[in-house]
Amino acid sequence: MARANKSIYSALAANLLIAITKFVAGAFTNSSSMIAEGIHSTVDTSNQLLLLYGLKRSVKPADKYRPFGYGKELYFWSFIVSIMIFGLGGVVSITQGIEHIRHPETLVNPGWNYVVLVLSFVFEGASLIVAIKEFNKTRNGLPWWKAIIKSKDPSGFLVLFEDGAAVMGLIIVFVLMVLSHNLNMPFLDGLASVLVGLLLIFVSFILARESRSLLMGEGLSPETQQKLKELIEADKDVITVKSILSTYQSPKEVILVLIITFQSDLDTEELTAAIDRLRSEVKQKYTIIRFVIIQPQSANIEEGNQSKDIFLA
């Protein structure tokens, strides 16, 4: 979380300063693409504030209303951020770009735009480097895309995607602005705004997909589940693990439900001791697992096609 905060704060500072300079330059030069870039930076600034708010809410301690804590607040606000990128970033930029393609305006004093774009590229590039370094520390040798898919902390890859889209958007605007100025084709400025909007919509769909998956309740990976099964079935009192259910409440907190078939000759005291032992072993090996709920079944109950639910956490 601390690493994510570092990249969020760096992105927040960069986007706030860049948004102001882009709007000022766009107003002086009548550049729709520069205004679109200003909107992009403003949306990114708002997104970082929402992520920081989500991070703060997610560490709020459990209470009687949320007995498992507020960890999913981070996933909720991450999903909201992805929607904002689509609505306030992508759609507004495309709408404005189409308007300027239909009614192009000649750039006035384009030198202002070039200065702002170069400075923005430096600041956004520095923020992207910070985001890459911080995310790289969490990859554990995995390929980039696989690490993003497996990541349970959206605050890390959200900033990474935002900064990456910002740098790509600046390159698009710079190239088309140079062509618009040198070829006297002012509609290219509007086209740059449309392309930036399409880029933002593409990024928003990727982020919405990942945030939605986390919000809906992603569980432990199949590899981790198999290791858990082997760990539990190695216990002398366990016959088999019937089912493993899990969900991430936050990037650092998992709820685990185990349905286990125990030896039929265990009495209540022995069964309780076995459950306590298994719960301690699981939590000791996997510190990310906060709650362990065990539903025991004895072999003779299973054979008799009966059920008996005993939940211990």
Automatic annotation (TrEMBL):
It is found in: Membrane. InterPro entries: Cation_efflux, Cation_efflux_CTD_sf, Cation_efflux_TM, Cation_efflux_TMD_sf, SLC30A9. The chain crosses the membrane at residues 7-28, 74-94, 114-135, 156-179, 191-208. Gene3D superfamilies: Cation efflux protein transmembrane domain (1.20.1510.10), Cation efflux protein, cytoplasmic domain (3.30.70.1350). GO terms for biological process: zinc ion transport. It is a multi-pass membrane protein. Keywords: Membrane, Transmembrane, Transmembrane helix, Transport. The keyword Nucleotidyltransferase does not apply. GO terms for molecular function: monoatomic cation transmembrane transporter activity. Pfam families: Cation_efflux. GO terms for cellular component: membrane. Residues 10-216 form the Cation efflux protein transmembrane domain. Its main location: membrane. NCBIfam families: CDF. This is Cation diffusion facilitator family transporter.
